[in-house]
Amino acid sequence: MPTQRRPLRSGEGRGRALGGVNSQTKEAAVEFITNLVNLVNGVVWGPPMLVAILGTGLFLMLRLKFMPLAKIGHGFKLMWQGRKKGDESSGEISPFQALMTCLAATVGTGNIAGVATAIFLGGPGALFWMWCTALVGMATKYCEVVLAVHYRETDDRQEHVGGPMYAIKNGLGAKWLWLGTAFAIFGGLAGFGIGNMVQVNSMAHALTDTFGVPSWVTGVVAMIFVGLVILGGIKRIGKVAASLVPTMAIAYVAAAIVVLVVHAEAIPAAFSLIFTHAFSPVSAAGGFAGAAVMAAIRFGVARGIFSNEAGLGTAGIAQAAGTTTSAVRSGMIGMLGTFIDTLIICSLTGLAIITSGVWTSGVSGAGLSAAAFEAGMPGFGGALLSIALVVFAFTTILGWSYYGEKCWEFLVGTKAIMPFRIIWVLAVPFGAVAQLDFAWLLADTLNGLMALPNLLSLLLLSPIVVKLTRDHFSNP
Question: Which domain holds residue 456?
Fold first, then answer.
């Protein structure tokens, strides 16, 4: 028997029709915005930007006469000495804690998922271009930190604040203030995506896939721990980072070395693949679709920058809070972040993926890294990598919370600090359960846009860095 339809009330049919039109309009608007952001993202992370970042790093390395590479050993010595806090009137945390805060923000999903994605899309040669990015990136990060410390200020809470926005304001003058404001806006917004929700989303997926933990549980627990740390400010963040980052980095490096020992006979062939395919195409093999040289360069450089953030200007924000009377010494400690992050941790991840042979499996992202660890340590390698991903992502949330806080403080003043911290903590559980495809795309775009004002200021203020460096080493 056919169902009888209820007679439509006056205007109801029109309402339904309008509702359908409104729904279609909303979908069209969302699609338009998504396509627009995709277009901007393609420009931001396209060849011109990658050339600009690499070119700026090479220019600075040449201007510094390769000092960052020549003084790596001295930098590690300063880092070890920097474990002591020093005069509190010159900063809030020790230089070592400042470096660990920087590493907390950079050693994250980029070291696990980012490296795997670069190899999946660009082949083994992508790892070579990650190394190139890191080598010139040491000069970039050195200059970022030197300028951040040299031009830092003391806010109305008597805490030291610095970063590209302050370097632009105090180094380039009032007419360039708009450029510092642009950096602060990009950083203040990007942090919620790339430094918060994307990270906790990765944590939630790793724990769900490996241990069956519901995403909402991960979100709530992460929110509690993040709140306990960041509501205490940079001093508490620095203490937690100084304890957690070295421990997790050493444990991860040890696990990666175990994988390489298991596949020791494949290491020479792995290096051959890396150097060969950095300059020649790699053909399809197994689940690997093949890649041109341009893909190796693009994804190697882009994922390298995503991992170590050299060129984005964030490192100087944390280093400006360190107890120091020398911008150059702070710069030499700060540049080690790029060395440790990419040349050590990312290299070991990449070599583990290549030597184990899983790079041709067709798996991408964190799953590819997990497969490599599982191949080297059957039964628990994948679970170990999931735990590492969770800890890495957690510390990234802590480090980026400070970056975002200082961006908003620059824009609004110290009155923004506590509201920002509360909003940051509340965003954590949302990120654990939400679909973040668009949020990730937007945050990635804003993250790249941070590089534009930072790179321009580095080029314009490079004579100051050279002078400070020359004066430091001529009058030790």
Answer: 44-470
